[in-house]
């Protein structure tokens, strides 16, 4: 969600409102940036943002989707929209409470999915700086 929009899926007028949305799994595709995102990519996001860890896609299931297997590999020359880049930069500087709220989502993942996600992140984190 963040990589395609530059914004986190859970927002609110204050920290408590945002945390409530995280707990409820309340999110939607909001903003003009989603008009350019394929339905296959949106389907993957829906699979990955399910509230229940049992219903949520595993890393293997996510990697087996049409968007990852067929469409994403051809997008290597795609340029990120400036609003997405700005959103990613803003997300990087968010306060700890917002990041902790997003961790709540990750904690709902089963161990196997979390392990695969951690391995994928570490493979992408070539500088080993967590950014």
TrEMBL record:
It comes from Zooxanthella nutricula. The keyword Kinase applies. Its cofactor is Mg(2+). The lineage of its organism: Eukaryota, Sar, Alveolata, Dinophyceae, Peridiniales. It comes from the Eukaryota. Belongs to the protein kinase superfamily. Ser/Thr protein kinase family. CDPK subfamily. Residues 112-131 form the EF-hand domain. This is Protein kinase domain-containing protein. SUPFAM superfamilies: Protein kinase-like (PK-like). Transmembrane segments: none annotated.
């Amino acid at each position: 969600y963040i990589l395609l929009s530059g914004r986190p899926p859970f927002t609110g007028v204050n920290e408590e409102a945002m945390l409530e949305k995280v707990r409820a799994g309340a999110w939607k595709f909001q903003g003009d940036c989603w008009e350019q995102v394929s339905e296959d990519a949106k389907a993957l996001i829906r699979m990955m943002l399910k509230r229940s860890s049992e219903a949520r896609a595993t890393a293997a299931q996510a990697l087996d989707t049409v968007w990852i297997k067929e469409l994403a590999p051809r997008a290597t020359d795609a340029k990120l929209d400036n609003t997405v880049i700005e959103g990613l930069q803003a997300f990087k500087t968010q306060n700890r409470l917002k990041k902790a709220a997003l961790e709540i989502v990750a904690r709902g993942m089963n161990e196997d999915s979390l392990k695969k996600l951690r391995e994928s992140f570490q493979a992408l984190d070539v500088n080993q700086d967590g950014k």
